[in-house]
Amino acid sequence: MSSFEELSFTAQNFSGKVRLFPLPNLVIFPHVMQPLHIFEPRYRCLLEDALATDRLVAMALLTPGWESNYEGMPPLCPVACLSRVTTYHCLEDGTYNVLLLGLQRVRLVREIEPQKLYREAEVTLCEDCYPVCPGPTGRVLQQRLRDAFVRALPLLPEVQEQMDQLLTTDISLGVLTDVISFMLEIAIGHKETLLAEVNVHRRAQMLLEHLESIAKGPTRQNGSAGAFLPRFSMN
Question: What per-residue confidence (pLDDT) applies to 36?
Fold first, then answer.
């Protein structure tokens, strides 16, 4: 697969069927990258099937109460992130380290009767919506979001350097909201709410509220964001 194909996604070639990779503590957004260590047999099977075909997986969040039925089919939040495996490494014990790239939001329509060790579902693609309505314009929201995030940044040189590069890049408001939402250390439920919001202006307003509360709160001195490339997440 070429680097261009890894970074692109064409809806016309998408079947609408996804392999589900549900986790209780991770929300991935479009336009970001997340390393994963995959060790459960069902998810090793999922990865191997993905690598043999389109490299696509849908990262979904388990709803609260999943602990009682983790090995079965606990309920999922309705919006997931379709992602592509960009790189992988198989370790000697048969487990994998992979790097995922978030591609696009998807809404779960229905789960398919299991044919594999892992879960599958039919989904619809969710496009970002830029409303034409009264209120702050996208450009105003983008500047407010950039300013608020700079105020909330921890005093960590590596994060500051990465964000300086991001904030001086001409990216869309939708991409900016997704990257910041991913980086912020906020409750997992809040991250899922941000993922589920396709109205970009509303998503930016929600994110501004989180950033303003972080800048005012006691966590300000300890930092509120992680590195752009997060630590490995375990399945």
Answer: 96
- Give residue-wise pLDDT tens across range 71-82: 778 999 999 999
Residues with pLDDT less than 50, the chain: 1-4, 155-156, 219-224, 226-229
How many structural domains does the chain have? 2
Give residue-wise pLDDT tens across range 90-134: 999 999 999 999 999 999 999 999 889 999 999 999 999 998 765
120-147 burial by CB neighbour count: b if 16+ within 10 A, else e?
A: bbebeebebeeeeeeeeebeebbebbbe
- Asked if residue 30 and residue 110 are part of one domain, the reply reads yes
Task: Of 176, 180, 182, give the one whose Cα is nearest residue 139.
Answer: 176
The answer to the question of residue 232 being in a domain is no
Q: How far is CA 51 from CA 10, 87, 214, in A?
A: 18, 10, 40
Q: Among residues 59, 63, 55, 67, which one has the least CA distance to residue 5?
A: 55
Decide which of 64, 97, 127 is a domain's last residue.
127
CA-CA distance, 171 to 193, in Å (whole number)? 22
The 3-state DSSP class for residue 110 equals strand
CB atoms within 10 A of CB 26: 20
**What pLDDT, on the 0 to 100 scale, is given for residue 150?**
78
Can you give the pTM of this predicted structure? 0.86
Q: How far apart are the first and last CA of the chain?
A: 25
Domain contains 132: no
Q: Is residue 227 part of a domain?
A: no
Question: Structural domain of residue 174, as residue ranges?
Answer: 138-222
